Amino acid sequence: xxxxxxxxxxxxxxxxxxxxxxxxxxxxxxxxxxxxxxxxxxxxxxxxxxxxxxxxxxxxxxxxxxxxxxxxxxxxxxxxxxxxxxxxxxxxxxxxxxxxxxxxxxxxxxxxxxxxxxxxxxxxxxxxxxxxxxxxxxxxxxxxxxxxxxxxxxxxxxxxxxxxxxxxxxxxxxxxxxxxxxxxxxxxxxxxxxxxxxxxxxxxxxxxxxxxxxxxxxxxxxxxxxxxxxxxxxxxxxxxxxxxxxxxxxxxxxxxxxxxxxxxxxxxxxxxxxxxxxxxxxxxxxxxxxxxxxxxxxxxxxxxxxxxxxxxxxxxxxxxxxxxxxxxxxxxxxxxxxxxxxxxxxxxxxxxxxxxxxxxxxxxxxxxxxxxxxxxxxxxxxxxxxxxxxxxxxxxxxxxxxxxxxxxxxxxxxxxxxxxxxxxxxxxxxxxxxxxxxxxxxxxxx
Length: 446
Ligand SMILES: Cc1cc2nc3c(=O)[nH]c(=O)nc-3n(C[C@H](O)[C@H](O)[C@H](O)COP(=O)(O)OP(=O)(O)OC[C@H]3O[C@@H](n4cnc5c(N)ncnc54)[C@H](O)[C@@H]3O)c2cc1C
Fold this sequence. Notes:
Elements: E1 8-14, H1 18-27, E2 31-38, H2 62-71, H3 75-81, E3 85-88, H4 89-92, E4 93-97, E5 100-101, E6 110-113, H5 116-128, E7 133-137, E8 140-147, E9 150-158, E10 161-166, E11 169-172, H6 180-186, E12 194-209, E13 220-223, E14 231-238, E15 242-250, H7 259-267, H8 272-278, E16 283-298, E17 310-312, E18 318-319, H9 327-345, H10 350-375, H11 389-405, H12 407-417, H13 429-445
Parallel strand pairs: 1-2, 1-11, 2-7, 4-13, 11-17
Antiparallel strand pairs: 3-6, 4-5, 8-9, 9-10, 12-15, 12-16, 13-14, 14-15, 16-18
The structure holds flavin-adenine dinucleotide (FAD).
The site of flavin-adenine dinucleotide has 37 residues, from α1, β2, β8, β16 and α9.
């Protein structure tokens, strides 16, 4: 496509979550008009029905922040102006994993911490600033309109009936509960192959006033459990001098929704520093719970055929255990892949879909394997374990030990976790050799 030339007249995006907004930012320079359809009737700056997960901590990884900045230059400053708290990832975000704390040291980059509704409000405003993007609230997409293998628009519910909205291109960002596989099957495209892991996670979170703590360095803290424990804890600062505390559990281990029970649960986490950090924090509003029974990866790229003019994006493709905070950033990378596939191929070209889906699936694969391999360590988690599963987990343990000694490995590992590089960078012969040596030394010392 020539510079400045538009791909088409109207693009529709279903869903005004982070994925839908990032998609709209990618499409705005490439279409005359972009209309976002959102089933929620109101989009404010508080937790809304269609994105109930927004009551829980949402960390925007640094890679996701850089991706958003590419789509909407100046967004970083807009986050800061809206009260985002900037924290040094290596020094101020303390992470307990594999039974010990990561060494606290500056790694050269930061994250901007906000509540999920606040991130969304800032991005939404910036998306509307494009001038050719509008959001239709109370507009529920009920299906696809398809003609001769091409999407020609969507159907939306209206009152007691339905109406068709014709468009040149449709992005489905309806999230993990969206019905795209059903719509595709209904239109003769067959079943969508899907990977599913039964993670049985429960989360309970609340907004609290930020308090001064004895731990001067820590601004955020995360505890990931190691068997036989199954309790997670995460606390992050947000706008308005508040913080969100999220507790997680697996299977029968469910964090309580009463305040005393919530703090008692925090006291039982793998390291006492977490409770000390949050002890006595004052709750604002109420504790909210969320259940996530499964992680899902829908393989739209493996379908025998796929309609031209349609792109699934964000949680519509992959929805994983948020213990590594990847979901919003993955959606941003999907949007960037869509922009470059459109620039390369233009519309109405099956190469567009192939190219886009391949790139989007690469992003999803990175997020999926990081989260899934950690989940599958718990025997009750259902799902397929690769033959070399024990080696994979041993590698992660060894990498943690090596990064304690070596700041460069530490930095690389955390940059990869923040989706700034592909995970393959850790698979050089040199690093594998050093990780193995470290594991051997640790075993010999035990
Ligand atoms: C407890 C928890 C904690 C999380 N923590 C993090 C974190 O720290 N960092 C991170 O990056 N990610 C986190 N995530 C994941 C993150 O919430 C998702 O990955 C991210 O929101 C995906 O964005 P999305 O736009 O694809 O979907 P969503 O944000 O779910 O948005 C989907 C939108 O589509 C709308 N919609 C649905 N159906 C229709 C319809 N038929 N018509 C029109 N609109 C429709 C919904 O109302 C909603 O607005 C967390 C998730 C959970 C459950």
